[in-house]
């Protein structure tokens, strides 16, 4: 309408996806592991990654891995270079980064563990994201949807609630507006990991020396970090953007909502035909396909007719009428002929 052009390229054989939340991150990661993105798969070396060996049931193992004989690694799992796995630990549907140390009797399911993470004995992690340098002390538990930021320490036997976000940085008390955040992103660019590490080291020193007692109860004995509180009203929507599976009650609500929408569509289709007469259910089912294709054209014709009549009554200029009808072109592509007829009617010599 404003004269802007949008250029598109239709992909037929390649893979493309947008990652804008944790759930899309999880979906695309699973596509990579299941080889839908070939040749960009874990066992092919590209962009500086270490090639891993593809084994049965979709397991990927890098070189120099220390794995106990009693440890169980399930299907569609990636184990990074130099990682150590203790006895009786179970890992399934997960990605383990490089240089990680996993103790004994550890359960990891549907999770993403980044590099240089230490997980001590008896920990449980289900559907979580753990960033670089995190330490989980013995017996710690991460509920589904948890995200641990860089170099966080979870205390012994501490249970992190579901969908929690834990960071070394304190949660801002004053929230910036969307415009300010966008300006900050554009002006500062991507934050370097080295600066995050420096902040993390500084935070570790400050917390242990000044306010360790104040923060121990939040992450357990020996824990370091802050649990960010979820904004008011955000708790109900956390499941939409989490790596955790959708809860059963939410699946039921979505199913019921879809059924309600389908009933409304069925009622609308049986209401009135284009001629204004009531149509029966049998006639509606036979003519659904044809009616759908005609709806847009009928709607457009009515809009043009109303614009035409108003222009005649109010003696609107030809250029203004053409501009207004042009604004309706977003719905259908056959409007050129109608515009020609409309312009011809207004011109006195036609």
UniProtKB/TrEMBL annotation:
The lineage of its organism: Eukaryota, Viridiplantae, Streptophyta, Embryophyta, Tracheophyta. CDD domains: LbH_eIF2B_epsilon (cd05787). Residues 179-218, 260-296 are annotated as: Disordered. Residues 56-160 form the EIF2B subunit epsilon/gamma LbH domain. InterPro entries: eIF2B_epsilon, LbH_EIF2B3/5, Trimer_LpxA-like_sf. Keywords: Cytoplasm. Residues 185-211, 264-285 have a biased composition (Polar residues). The keyword Cytoplasm applies. Gene3D superfamilies: 1.25.40.180, Hexapeptide repeat proteins. Pfam families: LbH_EIF2B (PF25084). This is EIF2B subunit epsilon/gamma LbH domain-containing protein. The keyword rRNA-binding does not apply.
């Amino acid at each position: 309408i404003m004269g802007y052009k949008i250029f598109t390229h239709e992909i037929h054989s390649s893979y493309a996806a947008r990652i804008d939340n944790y759930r899309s991150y999880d979906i695309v990661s699973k596509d990579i592991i299941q080889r839908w993105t070939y040749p960009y798969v874990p066992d092919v070396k590209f962009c500086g990654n270490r090639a891993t060996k593809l084994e049965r049931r979709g397991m990927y193992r890098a070189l120099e891995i220390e794995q106990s004989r009693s440890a169980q690694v399930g299907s569609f799992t990636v184990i990074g270079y130099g990682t150590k796995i203790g006895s009786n630990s179970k890992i399934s549907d997960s990605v383990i980064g490089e240089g990680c140390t996993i103790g004994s009797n550890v359960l990891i399911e549907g999770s993403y563990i980044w590099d240089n993470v230490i997980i001590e004995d008896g920990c449980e992690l289900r559907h979580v994201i753990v960033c670089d340098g995190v330490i989980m002390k013995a017996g710690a538990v991460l509920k589904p949807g948890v995200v641990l930021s860089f170099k966080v320490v979870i205390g012994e036997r501490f249970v992190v609630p579901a969908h929690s976000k834990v960071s070394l940085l304190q949660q801002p008390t004053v929230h910036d507006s969307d415009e300010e955040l966008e300006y900050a992103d554009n002006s500062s660019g991507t934050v370097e990991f080295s600066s995050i590490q420096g902040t993390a080291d500084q935070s570790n020193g400050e917390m242990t020396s000044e306010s360790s007692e104040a923060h121990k109860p939040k992450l357990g004995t020996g824990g370091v970090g802050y649990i960010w509180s979820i904004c008011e009203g955000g708790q109900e929507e956390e499941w939409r953007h989490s790596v955790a599976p959708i809860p059963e009650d939410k699946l039921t609500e979505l199913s019921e909502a879809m059924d309600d929408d389908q009933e409304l569509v069925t009622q609308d289709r049986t209401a009135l035909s284009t001629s204004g007469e009531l149509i029966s259910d049998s006639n509606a089912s036979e003519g659904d396909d044809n009616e759908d294709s005609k709806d847009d054209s009928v709607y457009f014709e009515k809009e043009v007719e109303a614009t035409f009549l108003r222009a005649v009554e109010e003696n609107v200029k030809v250029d203004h009428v053409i501009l207004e009808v042009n604004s309706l072109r977003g719905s259908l592509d056959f409007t050129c002929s109608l515009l020609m007829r409309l312009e011809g009617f207004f011109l006195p010599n036609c």
